[in-house]
Amino acid sequence: WLVARYRKNASKWLKGHYRGILVDVGCGDDKLRKTLPPTVRYIGVDYPITMALGYSGSPDIFADAAYLPFAGRSVDTVCLLDVLEHLSAPEKAIAEAARILRQGGKCVIHVPFFYPLHDEPFDYQRWTSHGLERVLKKYGFTMVTINPSTNPMETSAVIFCTAMAKGLYDSINAKNLMILSAPIILAMI
């Protein structure tokens, strides 16, 4: 429920930042493509290994985020949504975003902080707002806004539910008596 609510709120916020030629690096399921107005030219980019993890989208281009096949200063918007944590060299992707953006272009980024590991083994790091700001400034970006997408209570709820689900999963795999508590644990989650 928290992820679904986040996506709805993020969609509203992001709409004000899209324009012109938009490159969605790490497009995955192509969810962004479906939300854009016809005035935006969408180009989805992803990596073949990532798509093999089970994403249903169809990238327009297969490429490495560290080596984007676009001319310098040729796009208006670069989106790095839930992708930086999956890159072994995230600074290279940020440098590439800076290289391909036109003067006045926008780079829209979303990264998780407290979030379970996912798309393993390709989940390498988490970002604080300070770390992200430091890297973005290094490549000439000006920070406009940093918005946390959850509050401390929601973060605590996510950690609790993740721990309960992991405990239940481990009990099922070990075939121990903890399995009997499954209905209670599922209700709590």
Question: Can you offer a commentary on this structure?
Answer:
This protein is α/β, with parallel strands linked by helices and 189 residues long. The protein contains six helices and five strands; from the N terminus they run H-E-E-H-E-E-H-E-H-H-H. It has helices at 2-15, 48-51, 90-100, 129-138, 152-174, 182-188, and strands spanning 21-25, 41-46, 61-62, 75-81, 101-110. The protein is elongated and about 60 Å long. The model has no long low-confidence stretch (mean pLDDT 89).
Key features of this structure:
189 residues, alpha/beta, five-stranded parallel β-sheet, 16% strand, elongated
Sum this structure up briefly:
The chain is α/β, with parallel strands linked by helices. The protein contains 6 helices and 5 strands, in the order αββαββαβααα. The radius of gyration is 19 Å and the shape is elongated.
Silhouette = elongated
Number of helices: 6
Compute the average pLDDT: 89
Percent range of helical residues: 25-40%
Strand order of the largest sheet: 3-2-1-4-5
Low-confidence regions? none
User: Any idea what the radius of gyration is?
Assistant: 19 Å
User: What fraction of residues sit in β-strands?
Assistant: 15-25%
What is the structural class? alpha/beta
| Main β-sheet description | 5 strands, parallel
Distance between the termini: 11 Å
Order of helices and strands: HEEHEEHEHHH
Q: How do the strands and helices of this protein lay out in sequence?
A:
Elements: H1 2-15, E1 21-25, E2 41-46, H2 48-51, E3 61-62, E4 75-81, H3 90-100, E5 101-110, H4 129-138, H5 152-174, H6 182-188
Parallel strand pairs: 1-2, 1-4, 2-3, 4-5
